[in-house]
Design goal:
45% helix, 17 helices, 19 strands, 561 residues, five-stranded parallel beta sheet
Length: 561
């Protein structure tokens, strides 16, 4: 059997529930073929990360079976990679070739033993050392272990890892992810399990990862909301509350098929709705005719002098006939009503969210911010080699672009007045108001409920007004008492936007910092549509090229270190 036809692992009836019987995976059946490259999508909380952990062997508590073919290795990149903060970058990367490191260490140990009397005076021990040395030499030759340092250096350079002697505890989120990815790829596993691999990665690092994905022979399962990455993969799994749905194509193919399926469901819903209305109308008409017939029959019987006992018999027969007719129509109506309900449950939630900041009173083109030779120094070293000069005007839609560590967050703090420049000038319009959505959604307080969180940003609106706004931001009644600590990334994003909307009705400048990290595809598209429709001045930090393109960016500020 050719490798590409060989099943590497299968999941049979896999289900997983957490505390309070919260079901995250239900009856998952799937098979993974050698070399397959599959994207996994689904709503936040649908069990995508849990699925990868089960396959990686990290999650043991589940129902069902996971069966692996022997002889295949699995590598796993967590959404938040675990790295030893006390190690250097090189020490962490070397963990990816630990077997080679151990081989070299044992080879050196054997060489040292050759000089010890305990060994060179004992022919049997010397023979054992020579035999083991030969085995290790074969391993070293096959793994090119003598060139390990240059191999590590090339790998770290390829993924633009920080300096090899830098401590992990001092790394940014993007740097930690690049180091973890470098460690994983050096393992050369047969199957890669990647959980949001492009989170926190800058444009250059994303480009290198994209090229690796298209060129590697390794199979992979990738959880991601990065639509460019998902379009590089050959097929797609969608996790739903009812199980997993397979699509034999990339994300664009999935989206096209999904839209066709929704259209078909809507057509069925419309047809069944018409049949239901027709059945109800027919049932009413039949019952009305039967009642009229019964009344006429009773009158005729009275005129004909039919006895009371005979009339009671006729009455019983009429009632039984009415019940039979009623049952026939009732069964048909119930069947159609159930069909309509079932179809509605299959349709995705088509509600949309609107970011309804009132329009700013500023005329288009009014200067909001002017920077001249701007710079900022941490200790004595200036952040930007070339000082920044730019103008932000009312109505601008700006993309703030730069590599990890280039000072994007620092510039945002300068723009909002949190920091003051150490060189150059930064002039803000008098009374400039900014709405700032940071990438950690730090305005959300985990100890508050969803409703309490919104109320803390505006206690002047009536409760019913706040609840109406929550509903517009896709928070149903059942979620108003939910603690913010239990919210997904997408829910925190929506609640943050909701809070900012009720607290600042007329922002002059809306700043959004890496808004697409840790949100699912549905919330990604909600956010995309929301910002696309927003008509105020917008400044966005994002490494997601597809997202940036779709929100109609018009200007770019690029930071170079």
């Amino acid at each position: 059997m050719a490798d590409d036809k060989k099943i590497i692992f299968s999941m049979v009836g896999v289900s997983k529930a957490f505390q309070a019987n919260k079901q995250v995976l239900k009856d998952i059946y799937l098979s993974f073929f050698y070399g397959a490259k599959i994207g996994i999508i689904g709503l936040n909380g649908s069990g995508k990360s849990t699925l990868l952990k089960i396959i990686a062997g990290l999650e043991k508590s589940y129902q069902g079976e996971v069966v692996f073919s022997p002889g295949y290795s699995v590598g796993y990149l967590a959404q938040e990679p675990h790295l030893d903060n006390d190690k250097t970058v090189k020490e962490v990367v070397m963990e990816g070739v630990q077997n080679v490191v151990d081989t070299l260490a044992e080879y050196e140990e054997i060489n040292n033993k050759f000089g010890l009397p305990e060994y060179y005076e004992d022919p049997e021990k010397m023979d054992a050392l020579f035999a083991r040395q030969a085995e290790l030499q074969d391993i070293i030759d096959s793994t090119d272990a003598w060139n390990l340092d240059s191999k590590l250096e090339r790998a770290m350079d390829a993924l633009r890892c920080p300096p090899e002697d830098q401590l992990v505890k001092n790394l940014s989120g993007g740097e930690r992810r690049r180091v973890a990815l470098c460690r994983l790829l050096l393992q050369k596993p047969d199957i890669l399990l990647l959980d949001e691999p492009t989170n926190h990665l800058d444009d250059v690092s994303r480009g290198k990862l994209y090229r690796f994905i298209t060129s590697t022979s390794s199979g992979m399962l990738v959880v991601s909301h990065d639509r460019i990455l998902l379009n590089l993969l050959s097929s797609t799994y969608e996790l739903t509350s009812k199980g997993v749905i397979y699509y034999a194509g990339n994300y664009d193919f999935y989206k096209e098929q999904k839209e066709l399926a929704v259209q078909a469901l809507q057509a069925r819903l419309e047809e069944n709705g018409k049949q239901l209305q027709k059945a109800r109308r027919q049932a009413r008409e039949v019952m009305e005719r039967q009642q009229k017939h019964d009344v006429r029959g009773k009158k005729q019987n009275i005129k004909s002098g039919v006895g009371k006992m005979a009339m009671n018999t006729f009455k019983d027969q009429a009632e039984k006939s009415s019940v039979r007719l009623n049952n026939v129509h009732t069964d048909k109506i119930h069947s159609l009503a159930k069909s309509v309900t079932d179809i509605r449950s299959e349709l995705p939630d088509m509600k949309t969210m609107r970011l309804d900041f009132n329009s700013s009173s500023l005329h288009i083109g009014k200067v909001l911010v002017t920077a001249k030779n701007l710079n900022y120094a941490y200790q004595s070293e200036e952040l930007w080699k070339s000082p920044l000069s730019f103008v932000i005007q009312s109505g601008d839609r700006i993309h703030l672009k730069g590599a990890n560590g280039s000072g994007k967050t620092t510039l945002l703090k300068l723009l909002t007045g949190t920091l003051s420049p150490t060189a150059g000038e930064l002039t803000r319009m008098d009374g400039l108001t900014c709405v700032y959505l940071d990438q950690e959604y730090s305005i959300i307080h985990d100890d508050l409920s969803v409703f309490e969180q919104l109320f803390s940003f505006n206690n002047k609106l009536y409760d019913h007004e706040l609840k109406t706004i929550l509903n517009r931001f896709l928070f149903p009644v059942s979620g108003w008492d939910k603690k913010c600590s239990c919210l997904s990334g997408g829910e925190k994003m929506r609640l943050s936007l909701c809070c900012l909307m009720v607290s600042a009705q007329t922002p002059d400048l809306f700043i959004v910092d890496e808004p697409t990290n840790n949100i699912d595809i549905m919330n990604m598209e909600i956010l995309t549509d929301t910002l696309k429709e927003y008509r105020g001045t917008l400044l966005v930090v994002s490494h997601d090229a597809c997202f940036v393109q779709q929100i109609n960016i018009e200007k770019t500020i690029t930071l170079n270190m």
